[in-house]
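User: Round two. Same drill as before: sequence, then structure, for each protein.

Assistant: Same drill it is. First protein:
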Amino acid sequence: MNKELIRQTAIKRLKKLANHPEKKAEKEAIILSLFFASKEWKEAQTIAIIKATDFEFDTSKIAEKAYQEGKKVVVPKSLSHRKLAFYEVDAASQYVLTKFGVEEPVSELLVEKTAIDLIVVPGLVFSKKGYRVGFGGGFYDRYLADYQGSTCAMVFSEQINNDWTVDNFDIPVQRIYTDSVKEVEGAE
């Protein structure tokens, strides 16, 4: 199956799930309980997340818990040449909506890649081994190419799909947190 078709199918599935807020919240609670109990969470002091759209995994609870625990939260801005840079945010930070429909922080507090302990990588579809199909810009694969910290993803069982070919530039996440434990073999 080609990646564009996979993207379209995944967005439909995620929007369908978003139309059932109780079910989505229940799945998010399962995933968050696994994540917050993890070694990755406990050891990380600086955590990178996106400001999620309505149909994506709601990252606001990750930010809230990070602030409560004194952790630093960073959110990306897209730059030219399909690059990302992460900026420190807090509960009062302001955001602007980009042409991609993503909210980016109004912040000048750039955080270097080497200072980020854990990146929660977004995506539309994930293989059982941690490879992902995103929105198609390649921003995260470029950023992760030389990233030395930990990576993970918050993945609804509806997003698990192995029916696509991994490209040589695809970078898998190290760990998937999902509401259906049987879905994941473990990222390599």
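Second protein:
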Amino acid sequence: MKSGIFYILLFFGCQMSFSQTILGKWKTIDDETGVEKSIVEIFEKQGKFYGKIIEIFEAEHRHRKCEKCEGEDKNKPILGLTILKGMKKSGNSYEGGKITDPKNGSSYNCKITMEGKDKIVVRGFIGISLFGRSQNWIRHK
């Protein structure tokens, strides 16, 4: 009987840990205005996590290009732009990658922390995490 309960708890514990992933579609919320901006789809490729803008809510920004971006992203359309690059799972968070702000073209170190299965905190920073800003992203259903 005790082993049966153990296996049931183990099963549900595994289910809960698998359901809390950053994979999927996320609604981005501007940290300064609180306005919903876009949908970013986070996907895994060769053990690292990436995020691409798949929808922009403000019609006047849908056809803009990332003019201030550098390197391979320069002058690419923002819609379809991969803004999260090279994130790695580290315990309960994801880090070690970069995030690009298409508004100013700058890239920052990035850390993503899960806050439940439907909310993540995305922090972009320079140097150490103390010097940066965070956005809450809500899972898009």
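Residues 94 and 138 are 16 Å apart (CA to CA).

User: Perfect.
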